[in-house]
């Protein structure tokens, strides 16, 4: 019996081996590293493609939504150029936060997400944008077109999480999180990250 297509003899690397999405930048794939139930920060190991324990959260804050990255994106010069606060980016895949009605407690899953906006975050002087999206086939949120249509509490929780998730008691947080930006800007950030990836890793 022939193998199905596509067939991978080995597990594809989540960053480089998965496709960016069926209708990018509007509809993208998200590889989920962290769920709202995690009190440990997991991060993709860039060499192996497996999840690595980055650090336990020091504070009581935990991610309010699914958190991961968009495959085949890279935050480089084009992403940095969209920021009015810095001229360098973090050199990582573009982060994405995905809202869903039903709890998803399993990390290392791939889902299809509909982009609705984003947050401009500066981490140690580097652009580290967070795209905001909804699960594309969600029963409650799939109709959302822009971040302005979401309840304010979702954005408040995201801004609070990213403002505190690197906080060390007695020290100032090394991050700055701006107000949420709209879908139009988010699409520009994703397109820039796709182009940065092609320039850096493309054939």
SS-derived structural category: alpha+beta
Count up the helices. Answer: 3
Order of helices and strands: EEEEHEEEEHEH
* Spatial sequence of strands, sheet with the most strands: 1-4-5-8-6
Mean pLDDT over the residues = 91
**How many beta-strand runs?**
9
Describe the structure.
The protein contains three helices and nine strands, in the order ββββαββββαβα. By secondary structure, the chain is of the alpha+beta class. The protein has one domain (27-201): Inorganic Pyrophosphatase (Alpha-Beta Complex).
Walk me through the topology:
Blueprint: E1 27-34, E2 40-44, E3 51-56, E4 66-69, H1 77-81, E5 95-99, E6 110-123, E7 126-127, E8 130-135, H2 152-164, E9 175-181, H3 183-201
Parallel strand pairs: 5-8
Antiparallel strand pairs: 1-4, 1-6, 2-3, 4-5, 6-7, 6-8, 6-9
Short précis:
With 203 residues, the protein is α+β, with helices and mostly antiparallel strands. It contains 3 helices and 9 strands.
Search tags:
about 200 residues; alpha+beta; Inorganic Pyrophosphatase; 3 helices; globular
């Amino acid at each position: 019996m022939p193998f199905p297509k596509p067939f991978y003899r080995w597990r594809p690397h989540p960053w480089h081996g998965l496709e960016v999405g069926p209708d990018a930048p509007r509809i993208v794939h998200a590889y989920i590293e962290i769920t709202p139930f995690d009190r440990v920060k997991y991060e993709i190991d860039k060499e192996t493609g497996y999840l690595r324990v980055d650090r336990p959260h020091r504070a009581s804050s935990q991610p309010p939504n699914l958190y991961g990255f968009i495959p085949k994106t890279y935050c480089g010069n084009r992403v940095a150029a969209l920021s009015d606060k810095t001229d360098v980016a973090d050199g990582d895949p573009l982060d994405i936060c995905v809202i869903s009605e039903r709890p998803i407690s399993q990390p290392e899953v791939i889902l299809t997400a509909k982009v609705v906006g984003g947050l401009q975050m500066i981490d140690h002087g580097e652009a580290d944008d967070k795209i905001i999206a909804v699960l594309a086939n969600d029963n409650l949120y799939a109709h959302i077109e822009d971040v302005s249509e979401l309840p304010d509490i979702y954005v408040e929780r995201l801004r609070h999480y990213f403002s505190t998730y690197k906080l060390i008691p007695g020290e100032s947080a090394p991050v700055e999180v701006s107000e949420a930006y709209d879908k139009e800007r988010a699409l520009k950030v994703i397109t820039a990250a796709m182009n940065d990836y092609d320039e850096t890793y493309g054939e």
